[in-house]
Specification:
There is one protein chain. This protein has about 375 residues and is an alpha/beta fold. The chain folds into two domains: about 15-20 and about 260-375, Aspartate Aminotransferase, domain 1; about 30-255, Aspartate Aminotransferase, domain 2 (3-Layer(aba) Sandwich). Helices cover about 40% and strands about 15% of the residues. It has twelve helices and twelve strands. It has helices at about 25-40, 50-65, 80-90, 105-115, 135-140, 165-170, 240-255, 260-275, 305-310, 330-335, 340-345, 355-375, and strands spanning about 15, 75-80, 95-100, 120-125, 145-150, 175-180, 195-200, 210-215, 280, 295, 315, 345-350. The strands form three sheets. A seven-stranded mixed beta sheet has the order 2-8-7-6-5-3-4, with helices on both faces. Helix 1 (about 25-40) runs antiparallel to helix 7, helix 2 (about 50-65) runs parallel beside helix 7 and helix 3 (about 80-90) packs parallel to helix 4. The longest helix is centred in the C-terminal third of the chain and has 21 residues, at about 355-375. The chain is globular, with a radius of gyration of 21 Å. It starts with 14 loop residues before the first strand and ends with a helix.
Protein backbone atom coordinates (compact mmCIF):
# COMPACT_ATOMS: atom_id res chain seq x y z
CA UNK A 1 0.00 0.00 0.00
CA UNK A 2 2.81 2.41 0.60
CA UNK A 3 6.39 3.33 0.34
CA UNK A 4 7.79 6.14 2.42
CA UNK A 5 10.98 8.13 2.19
CA UNK A 6 11.14 9.21 5.80
CA UNK A 7 14.66 9.86 7.02
CA UNK A 8 13.20 12.22 9.55
CA UNK A 9 12.81 15.87 10.34
CA UNK A 10 15.97 17.54 11.46
CA UNK A 11 18.18 15.66 8.98
CA UNK A 12 20.42 18.21 7.28
CA UNK A 13 19.23 18.94 3.75
CA UNK A 14 15.99 16.95 4.12
CA UNK A 15 12.62 18.53 3.33
CA UNK A 16 10.09 16.68 5.44
CA UNK A 17 6.58 16.37 3.96
CA UNK A 18 5.24 13.25 5.66
CA UNK A 19 3.29 14.70 8.60
CA UNK A 20 0.59 12.02 8.37
CA UNK A 21 3.19 9.33 9.12
CA UNK A 22 4.65 11.26 12.03
CA UNK A 23 5.42 14.83 13.03
CA UNK A 24 8.68 16.42 14.18
CA UNK A 25 9.08 16.35 17.95
CA UNK A 26 8.38 19.79 19.41
CA UNK A 27 11.35 21.21 21.35
CA UNK A 28 9.00 21.93 24.25
CA UNK A 29 7.91 18.29 24.34
CA UNK A 30 11.53 17.16 24.44
CA UNK A 31 12.31 19.52 27.30
CA UNK A 32 9.30 18.23 29.25
CA UNK A 33 10.57 14.67 28.83
CA UNK A 34 14.24 15.14 29.65
CA UNK A 35 14.05 15.27 33.48
CA UNK A 36 12.11 11.99 33.52
CA UNK A 37 14.69 10.39 31.24
CA UNK A 38 17.76 11.71 33.01
CA UNK A 39 17.31 11.48 36.77
CA UNK A 40 13.63 11.25 37.77
CA UNK A 41 13.16 7.56 37.23
CA UNK A 42 10.48 6.65 39.78
CA UNK A 43 7.53 4.42 38.98
CA UNK A 44 4.38 6.59 38.90
CA UNK A 45 2.45 3.77 40.56
CA UNK A 46 4.71 3.66 43.63
CA UNK A 47 3.54 5.17 46.92
CA UNK A 48 6.84 6.81 47.99
CA UNK A 49 7.60 10.50 47.42
CA UNK A 50 9.43 10.11 44.06
CA UNK A 51 6.62 7.86 42.85
CA UNK A 52 4.02 10.43 43.86
CA UNK A 53 5.98 13.12 41.99
CA UNK A 54 6.00 10.95 38.88
CA UNK A 55 2.26 10.32 39.32
CA UNK A 56 1.66 14.06 39.58
CA UNK A 57 3.50 14.62 36.29
CA UNK A 58 1.35 11.98 34.62
CA UNK A 59 -1.83 13.60 35.92
CA UNK A 60 -0.77 17.06 34.73
CA UNK A 61 -0.19 15.54 31.29
CA UNK A 62 -3.55 13.76 31.43
CA UNK A 63 -5.34 17.06 32.06
CA UNK A 64 -3.53 18.73 29.15
CA UNK A 65 -4.32 15.92 26.72
CA UNK A 66 -7.96 15.71 27.85
CA UNK A 67 -8.42 19.47 27.44
CA UNK A 68 -8.58 19.01 23.66
CA UNK A 69 -11.31 16.35 23.97
CA UNK A 70 -15.02 16.60 24.81
CA UNK A 71 -16.05 17.01 28.42
CA UNK A 72 -17.66 14.17 30.32
CA UNK A 73 -15.19 11.35 29.89
CA UNK A 74 -12.05 9.74 31.27
CA UNK A 75 -8.69 9.45 29.54
CA UNK A 76 -6.46 6.39 29.80
CA UNK A 77 -2.92 6.46 28.45
CA UNK A 78 -1.93 3.58 26.17
CA UNK A 79 1.15 2.49 24.27
CA UNK A 80 -0.23 4.16 21.15
CA UNK A 81 -3.37 4.59 19.09
CA UNK A 82 -3.19 1.02 17.77
CA UNK A 83 -3.56 -0.29 21.31
CA UNK A 84 -6.35 2.19 22.00
CA UNK A 85 -8.28 1.12 18.89
CA UNK A 86 -7.81 -2.58 19.65
CA UNK A 87 -8.98 -2.02 23.21
CA UNK A 88 -12.09 -0.12 22.15
CA UNK A 89 -13.13 -2.62 19.46
CA UNK A 90 -12.41 -5.77 21.44
CA UNK A 91 -13.76 -4.39 24.69
CA UNK A 92 -17.36 -3.62 23.75
CA UNK A 93 -18.62 -7.18 24.12
CA UNK A 94 -21.15 -9.00 21.97
CA UNK A 95 -22.84 -7.47 18.96
CA UNK A 96 -22.04 -6.50 15.41
CA UNK A 97 -19.39 -4.04 14.31
CA UNK A 98 -19.76 -1.55 11.47
CA UNK A 99 -16.80 0.32 10.02
CA UNK A 100 -15.66 2.00 6.79
CA UNK A 101 -13.57 0.64 3.94
CA UNK A 102 -11.11 3.53 4.25
CA UNK A 103 -10.25 3.01 7.92
CA UNK A 104 -6.71 2.57 9.20
CA UNK A 105 -5.33 -0.97 9.35
CA UNK A 106 -5.50 -0.82 13.15
CA UNK A 107 -9.29 -0.79 12.82
CA UNK A 108 -9.80 -2.98 9.76
CA UNK A 109 -7.40 -5.72 10.83
CA UNK A 110 -8.94 -5.83 14.30
CA UNK A 111 -12.46 -6.04 12.89
CA UNK A 112 -11.48 -8.81 10.50
CA UNK A 113 -9.78 -10.74 13.32
CA UNK A 114 -13.03 -10.64 15.29
CA UNK A 115 -15.01 -11.59 12.17
CA UNK A 116 -12.87 -14.68 11.73
CA UNK A 117 -13.77 -15.60 15.29
CA UNK A 118 -17.48 -15.39 14.45
CA UNK A 119 -18.32 -11.74 15.17
CA UNK A 120 -20.74 -10.03 12.77
CA UNK A 121 -18.86 -7.33 10.86
CA UNK A 122 -19.89 -4.90 8.13
CA UNK A 123 -17.42 -2.76 6.18
CA UNK A 124 -19.24 0.08 4.44
CA UNK A 125 -18.06 1.45 1.10
CA UNK A 126 -17.43 5.16 0.63
CA UNK A 127 -18.27 7.48 -2.24
CA UNK A 128 -15.74 8.62 -4.83
CA UNK A 129 -14.90 11.63 -2.67
CA UNK A 130 -14.00 9.35 0.22
CA UNK A 131 -17.02 10.27 2.34
CA UNK A 132 -19.54 7.85 3.77
CA UNK A 133 -23.06 7.71 2.36
CA UNK A 134 -25.17 8.37 5.44
CA UNK A 135 -28.19 6.59 3.96
CA UNK A 136 -26.06 3.47 3.50
CA UNK A 137 -24.85 3.88 7.07
CA UNK A 138 -28.44 4.04 8.36
CA UNK A 139 -29.30 0.87 6.48
CA UNK A 140 -26.32 -1.01 7.94
CA UNK A 141 -26.36 0.27 11.52
CA UNK A 142 -29.32 -1.55 12.98
CA UNK A 143 -30.36 -2.82 16.42
CA UNK A 144 -27.87 -5.51 17.35
CA UNK A 145 -24.91 -3.41 16.30
CA UNK A 146 -22.59 -2.92 19.26
CA UNK A 147 -20.03 -0.55 17.76
CA UNK A 148 -19.50 1.81 14.86
CA UNK A 149 -15.83 2.64 14.22
CA UNK A 150 -14.98 5.62 12.02
CA UNK A 151 -11.99 7.86 11.41
CA UNK A 152 -12.40 11.62 11.80
CA UNK A 153 -9.63 12.64 9.36
CA UNK A 154 -8.42 10.00 6.94
CA UNK A 155 -4.70 9.40 7.22
CA UNK A 156 -4.19 8.89 3.48
CA UNK A 157 -6.52 11.33 1.74
CA UNK A 158 -7.36 13.76 4.55
CA UNK A 159 -11.15 13.74 4.15
CA UNK A 160 -13.20 14.59 7.24
CA UNK A 161 -16.03 12.14 7.90
CA UNK A 162 -19.39 13.31 9.35
CA UNK A 163 -18.69 11.85 12.77
CA UNK A 164 -21.49 13.68 14.58
CA UNK A 165 -24.07 12.30 12.15
CA UNK A 166 -22.63 8.79 12.39
CA UNK A 167 -22.77 9.02 16.19
CA UNK A 168 -26.46 9.94 16.04
CA UNK A 169 -27.19 6.99 13.75
CA UNK A 170 -25.22 4.66 16.02
CA UNK A 171 -27.02 5.83 19.16
CA UNK A 172 -30.43 5.45 17.53
CA UNK A 173 -29.56 1.79 16.97
CA UNK A 174 -28.23 1.35 20.49
CA UNK A 175 -24.58 1.20 19.38
CA UNK A 176 -21.46 3.00 20.55
CA UNK A 177 -19.31 5.22 18.32
CA UNK A 178 -15.53 4.87 18.32
CA UNK A 179 -13.77 7.79 16.66
CA UNK A 180 -10.21 7.27 15.42
CA UNK A 181 -9.12 10.88 15.88
CA UNK A 182 -5.40 10.28 15.43
CA UNK A 183 -5.11 12.61 12.43
CA UNK A 184 -7.66 15.12 13.70
CA UNK A 185 -6.73 15.53 17.36
CA UNK A 186 -5.23 18.96 17.94
CA UNK A 187 -5.93 19.97 14.35
CA UNK A 188 -9.69 20.02 13.88
CA UNK A 189 -12.56 20.03 16.40
CA UNK A 190 -13.71 16.60 17.56
CA UNK A 191 -17.53 16.50 17.44
CA UNK A 192 -19.63 15.71 20.46
CA UNK A 193 -21.44 12.39 20.44
CA UNK A 194 -18.41 10.10 20.41
CA UNK A 195 -18.37 7.34 23.01
CA UNK A 196 -14.68 6.52 22.63
CA UNK A 197 -11.84 8.46 21.00
CA UNK A 198 -8.41 7.10 20.11
CA UNK A 199 -5.47 9.50 19.80
CA UNK A 200 -1.68 9.43 19.46
CA UNK A 201 1.08 11.76 20.65
CA UNK A 202 3.44 11.55 17.70
CA UNK A 203 0.91 13.01 15.27
CA UNK A 204 0.86 16.33 17.22
CA UNK A 205 4.63 16.81 17.71
CA UNK A 206 4.81 14.56 20.75
CA UNK A 207 6.83 11.37 21.30
CA UNK A 208 6.21 7.98 19.75
CA UNK A 209 5.12 5.15 22.02
CA UNK A 210 2.23 6.82 23.81
CA UNK A 211 -1.42 7.33 22.91
CA UNK A 212 -4.71 7.41 24.75
CA UNK A 213 -8.28 6.20 24.73
CA UNK A 214 -10.96 8.63 25.89
CA UNK A 215 -14.09 6.88 27.17
CA UNK A 216 -17.35 8.72 27.77
CA UNK A 217 -18.71 8.58 31.30
CA UNK A 218 -21.12 5.67 31.66
CA UNK A 219 -19.44 3.54 28.97
CA UNK A 220 -17.74 0.42 30.29
CA UNK A 221 -15.47 -1.81 28.20
CA UNK A 222 -13.47 -4.90 29.05
CA UNK A 223 -9.72 -4.43 29.45
CA UNK A 224 -7.43 -5.49 26.64
CA UNK A 225 -4.40 -5.92 28.90
CA UNK A 226 -4.54 -7.55 32.32
CA UNK A 227 -2.04 -7.26 35.12
CA UNK A 228 -2.64 -4.48 37.60
CA UNK A 229 -5.28 -2.16 36.17
CA UNK A 230 -3.16 0.92 36.82
CA UNK A 231 -5.26 3.18 34.61
CA UNK A 232 -8.74 4.27 35.72
CA UNK A 233 -10.53 2.40 32.93
CA UNK A 234 -8.71 -0.86 33.67
CA UNK A 235 -5.69 -0.64 31.36
CA UNK A 236 -2.71 -2.43 32.87
CA UNK A 237 0.97 -1.56 32.57
CA UNK A 238 3.52 0.83 34.03
CA UNK A 239 3.20 4.27 32.48
CA UNK A 240 6.23 6.25 31.33
CA UNK A 241 6.20 9.70 32.98
CA UNK A 242 8.55 10.92 30.24
CA UNK A 243 6.25 9.90 27.38
CA UNK A 244 3.17 11.20 29.18
CA UNK A 245 4.91 14.52 29.92
CA UNK A 246 5.90 14.86 26.27
CA UNK A 247 2.34 14.12 25.17
CA UNK A 248 1.00 16.71 27.61
CA UNK A 249 3.44 19.37 26.43
CA UNK A 250 2.53 18.69 22.80
CA UNK A 251 -1.18 18.96 23.64
CA UNK A 252 -0.65 22.28 25.39
CA UNK A 253 1.23 23.59 22.35
CA UNK A 254 -1.57 22.42 20.06
CA UNK A 255 -4.07 24.35 22.17
CA UNK A 256 -1.92 27.48 22.41
CA UNK A 257 -1.04 27.54 18.70
CA UNK A 258 -4.36 26.30 17.30
CA UNK A 259 -5.23 29.48 15.38
CA UNK A 260 -1.70 30.00 14.06
CA UNK A 261 -1.35 26.36 13.04
CA UNK A 262 -4.68 26.40 11.23
CA UNK A 263 -3.83 29.59 9.34
CA UNK A 264 -0.35 28.32 8.46
CA UNK A 265 -1.68 25.02 7.10
CA UNK A 266 -4.34 26.86 5.08
CA UNK A 267 -1.65 29.07 3.54
CA UNK A 268 0.49 26.04 2.68
CA UNK A 269 -2.52 24.27 1.16
CA UNK A 270 -3.24 27.25 -1.07
CA UNK A 271 0.41 27.52 -2.04
CA UNK A 272 0.61 23.80 -2.86
CA UNK A 273 -2.46 23.91 -5.09
CA UNK A 274 -1.20 26.99 -6.90
CA UNK A 275 2.30 25.58 -7.36
CA UNK A 276 1.34 22.08 -8.49
CA UNK A 277 -0.43 23.34 -11.59
CA UNK A 278 -1.97 21.23 -14.33
CA UNK A 279 -1.67 17.51 -14.65
CA UNK A 280 -2.37 16.64 -11.02
CA UNK A 281 -5.71 15.41 -9.67
CA UNK A 282 -6.60 15.61 -5.97
CA UNK A 283 -7.75 12.32 -4.46
CA UNK A 284 -10.76 12.69 -2.18
CA UNK A 285 -13.00 15.60 -1.29
CA UNK A 286 -11.42 19.02 -1.65
CA UNK A 287 -14.10 20.77 0.40
CA UNK A 288 -14.46 18.41 3.38
CA UNK A 289 -10.79 17.90 4.08
CA UNK A 290 -7.94 18.66 6.45
CA UNK A 291 -5.68 20.98 4.48
CA UNK A 292 -2.40 19.62 5.79
CA UNK A 293 -2.86 16.56 3.57
CA UNK A 294 -2.40 16.80 -0.22
CA UNK A 295 -2.99 13.42 -1.85
CA UNK A 296 -2.63 13.73 -5.62
CA UNK A 297 -2.18 11.58 -8.68
CA UNK A 298 -0.74 12.08 -12.14
CA UNK A 299 -1.40 9.83 -15.11
CA UNK A 300 1.29 7.17 -15.62
CA UNK A 301 3.48 8.59 -12.86
CA UNK A 302 6.18 6.15 -11.75
CA UNK A 303 6.14 6.86 -8.02
CA UNK A 304 9.02 4.53 -7.19
CA UNK A 305 11.23 6.33 -9.70
CA UNK A 306 10.06 9.71 -8.41
CA UNK A 307 11.02 8.78 -4.85
CA UNK A 308 14.36 7.40 -5.95
CA UNK A 309 15.19 10.64 -7.74
CA UNK A 310 14.06 12.84 -4.83
CA UNK A 311 15.62 11.08 -1.86
CA UNK A 312 16.11 14.33 0.03
CA UNK A 313 12.36 15.04 0.05
CA UNK A 314 10.37 12.92 2.51
CA UNK A 315 6.92 12.24 1.11
CA UNK A 316 4.71 9.19 0.84
CA UNK A 317 2.72 6.99 -1.48
CA UNK A 318 0.27 5.98 1.23
CA UNK A 319 0.20 4.88 4.84
CA UNK A 320 3.52 4.29 6.57
CA UNK A 321 1.96 1.33 8.39
CA UNK A 322 1.85 -0.71 5.19
CA UNK A 323 5.17 0.40 3.75
CA UNK A 324 6.86 -2.38 1.82
CA UNK A 325 3.72 -4.50 1.49
CA UNK A 326 3.72 -4.20 -2.29
CA UNK A 327 -0.03 -3.51 -2.33
CA UNK A 328 -1.57 -0.36 -3.69
CA UNK A 329 -3.50 1.78 -1.21
CA UNK A 330 -6.75 0.20 -0.01
CA UNK A 331 -8.04 3.73 0.62
CA UNK A 332 -7.46 4.86 -2.95
CA UNK A 333 -9.00 1.67 -4.31
CA UNK A 334 -11.98 2.20 -2.00
CA UNK A 335 -12.73 5.57 -3.63
CA UNK A 336 -12.81 3.89 -7.04
CA UNK A 337 -9.29 4.37 -8.34
CA UNK A 338 -7.78 1.63 -10.44
CA UNK A 339 -4.65 -0.10 -9.24
CA UNK A 340 -2.65 1.93 -11.78
CA UNK A 341 -4.16 5.21 -10.58
CA UNK A 342 -3.51 4.31 -6.94
CA UNK A 343 0.10 3.51 -7.75
CA UNK A 344 0.43 6.87 -9.53
CA UNK A 345 -0.52 8.81 -6.38
CA UNK A 346 1.61 10.59 -3.80
CA UNK A 347 0.85 12.24 -0.47
CA UNK A 348 2.39 15.48 0.77
CA UNK A 349 1.85 16.24 4.46
CA UNK A 350 2.88 19.45 6.16
CA UNK A 351 2.26 21.47 9.30
CA UNK A 352 3.66 23.73 11.99
CA UNK A 353 7.34 23.46 11.15
CA UNK A 354 7.03 23.43 7.35
CA UNK A 355 8.18 26.64 5.68
CA UNK A 356 6.76 28.07 2.48
CA UNK A 357 10.25 28.03 0.99
CA UNK A 358 10.62 24.30 1.67
CA UNK A 359 7.24 23.55 0.13
CA UNK A 360 7.97 25.58 -3.01
CA UNK A 361 11.34 23.87 -3.51
CA UNK A 362 9.83 20.43 -3.00
CA UNK A 363 6.87 20.94 -5.31
CA UNK A 364 8.99 22.50 -8.05
CA UNK A 365 11.34 19.53 -7.96
CA UNK A 366 8.43 17.05 -7.90
CA UNK A 367 6.87 18.83 -10.89
CA UNK A 368 10.16 18.79 -12.80
CA UNK A 369 10.80 15.11 -12.11
CA UNK A 370 7.24 14.16 -13.07
CA UNK A 371 7.44 16.19 -16.28
CA UNK A 372 10.74 14.53 -17.16
CA UNK A 373 9.05 11.15 -16.89
CA UNK A 374 6.44 12.17 -19.44
CA UNK A 375 9.07 13.44 -21.85
CA UNK A 376 11.08 10.23 -21.48
CA UNK A 377 7.97 8.15 -22.09
Amino acid sequence: MAQCVARGAGVRGMIYLDYQATTPLAPEALQAMLPWLQNQHANPHSAHAPGRAAKAAVEVARESVAALLPAGGSLSFTGGATEAINWAIKGVGAGGIVTLATEHAATLDTVWALARAGRAATVLPVKSDGLIDLDAARAAIRPGTALVAAMLVNNEIGVIQPIAELATIAHEAGALLLCDAVQGYGRTPIPDGCDMIAISAHKIHGPKGVGALWIRNGVAIEPLLHGGGQETSGRSGTLSPALCAGFGAAARLAADHADDDTAHVADLWALANERLGDGWVVNGSVEQRYHGNVNIRRERLDVNRLMSELRDIAFSAGSACASGSGRSSHVLRAIGLSDAQARSSIRLGFGRYTTEEELVIAIDRINAAAAAQRIAA
